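Task: sequence design from structure.
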């Protein structure tokens, strides 16, 4: 008799909708402060007391420029800006991508006028990665801090732009090994959706509130629908990558090459998968799949 699948109690905290509900909600600024002060503790002279959410979508200056959409974009009372993101899929030039979008934030801060002195406010970014990324030889820590420094005098740094990358796959601690607040948040982000209840040692009110936000039974009908669609997309992406690996086509797929995705779609059709499902998984137009398969 097949084993009955149990429905999860908590949604993944790294899911776009869940993360935004927890940290980009006007009613949950306490949780955002909790997150920022924990992961920026090494960088801040004093804890952040108050933040104001800013429109998280920045538009390109012309129709030819890209737009940037962040999970969280906010500022504190001093004008310091904070960008927080969750990244699910790896990219070869991910650090450059992050820097590119932060440059858009910097440009948006420029004050028009002849007297502008380029004294831009500080900008911090925190990126939670669900994939491993190469930060260089021997850079194996869970958290990587990147900033501007003087090559000949490393002690001289320019702190107006700082990037923090949290590599979740590198966090290996078990529940019983989590001692610090940071440990507990990392464990929750990586493993919360696998739990049947909140760990007994996770008694901090902010952590309890985060788990309440992620508890599926507390979702509204709209939130539940968002969750189901997001999970379906995640499963589809895993399915297509697993299929491509099996067929030896994963390299082109991971690099985002259209040829690799089309080849995988062709293999799926050849193996009898329905066109509707192949189109949904690969995000390719049906006509294009049919044309390539018949070619």
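Answer:
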């Amino acid at each position: 008799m097949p084993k009955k699948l149990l429905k999860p109690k908590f949604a993944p905290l790294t899911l776009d909708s869940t993360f935004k509900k927890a940290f980009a909600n006007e009613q949950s600024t306490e949780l955002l402060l909790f997150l920022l002060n924990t992961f920026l503790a090494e960088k801040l002279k004093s804890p952040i007391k108050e933040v104001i959410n800013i429109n998280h979508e920045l538009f390109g200056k012309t129709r030819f420029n890209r737009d940037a959409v962040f999970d969280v974009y906010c500022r504190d009372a001093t004008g310091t800006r904070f960008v927080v993101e969750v990244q699910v899929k790896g990219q070869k030039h991910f650090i450059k991508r992050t820097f590119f979008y932060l440059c858009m934030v910097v440009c948006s801060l420029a004050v028009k006028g002849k007297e502008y002195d380029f004294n831009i406010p500080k900008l911090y970014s925190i990126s939670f990665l669900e994939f491993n990324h190469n930060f260089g030889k021997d850079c194996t820590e869970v958290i990587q801090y990147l900033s501007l420094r003087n090559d000949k005098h490393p002690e001289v740094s320019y702190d107006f732009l700082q990037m923090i990358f949290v590599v979740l796959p590198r966090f290996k601690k078990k529940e019983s090994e989590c001692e610090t607040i940071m440990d507990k948040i990392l464990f929750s982000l990586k493993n919360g959706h696998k739990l049947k209840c909140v760990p007994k040692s996770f008694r901090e009110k902010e952590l309890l509130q985060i788990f309440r936000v992620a508890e599926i039974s507390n979702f509204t009908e709209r939130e539940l629908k968002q969750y189901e669609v997001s999970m379906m997309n995640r499963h589809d992406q895993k399915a297509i990558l697993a299929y491509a690996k099996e067929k030896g086509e994963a390299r082109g797929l991971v690099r985002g090459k259209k040829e690799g995705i089309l080849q995988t779609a062709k293999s799926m059709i050849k193996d009898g998968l329905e066109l509707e499902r192949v189109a949904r998984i690969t995000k390719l137009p049906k006509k294009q799949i049919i044309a390539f398969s018949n070619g």
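The radius of gyration is 22 Å.
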